[in-house]
Specification:
Number of helices: 7
Order of helices and strands: EEEHEEHEHEEEEHHHEH
Structural class: alpha/beta
Shape: globular
Radius of gyration: 17 Å
Strand content: 15-25%
Helix content: 25-40%
Bound molecules: cytidine-5'-triphosphate, magnesium ion
Length: about 220
Amino acid sequence: MAVALIVAAGRGERLGSGRPKALVTLAGRPMLEWSVAALRAVAAIERIIVALPPGELDAAPPEAEAVEGGDVRSQSVREALCASGGGDPVVVHDAARPLAPPELFERALDELLRSGADAAIAAARVSDTIKEAGEDGLTVARTLERRRLWAVQTPQVFRRAALERAFASASDELLATATDDALLIERLGGTVRIVESRPENIKVTTPADLHVAELLLAERVR
Ligand code: CTP
Ligand code: MG
């Protein structure tokens, strides 16, 4: 059976609400609880582990088990993975993406098993044209081919053996800079499949994002 890891141990500095972002109230409940509710609706998921900031372990809802997160996101994933026993596949999700629907988790799990890949990740097509700057950071070096570009989200789902191997071989330095977990698989030559998701599965980072998430969730509740 699958196990889900929700990382919720960030400080939410860019949101600036003075408390951990995952615990900020969003459309009537703590942000974290939207993800827990979505995961509870996925039949294949047996356990939910939440990585929380030190001193906030009581904030885990009763349906989830709490562990203390680390200094950086990847370390929080590693702590939750260690606490998760033997469940396979492993679903990793950011509490900062409260809009991910149950069907997205289901499609990611289906694709992982159908394809035989090491990982399957939610991602949205990009609507902007993306240019890459050169060494000075502000002179355009080239324009990327948009139809091949994807904005990566969570959930990201993994075969447990592949994810454990990837973490075992990653240095602390790599873990400090990795912005997603699939990267750790890619660098070992593993196969990562894309599962198309909607741009509405936003990551709440700034106060403007919180406002958008509030509107989208209020609409869904209604
Ligand atoms: N996260 C975590 N442990 C950390 C850092 C981040 O579990 N040490 C989690 C966050 O709680 C969030 C997800 O990783 O669900 C994505 O991180 P991000 O959006 O950067 O959230 P924060 O780190 O909380 O925000 P900020 O960077 O603005 O402080
Ligand atoms: Mg952060």
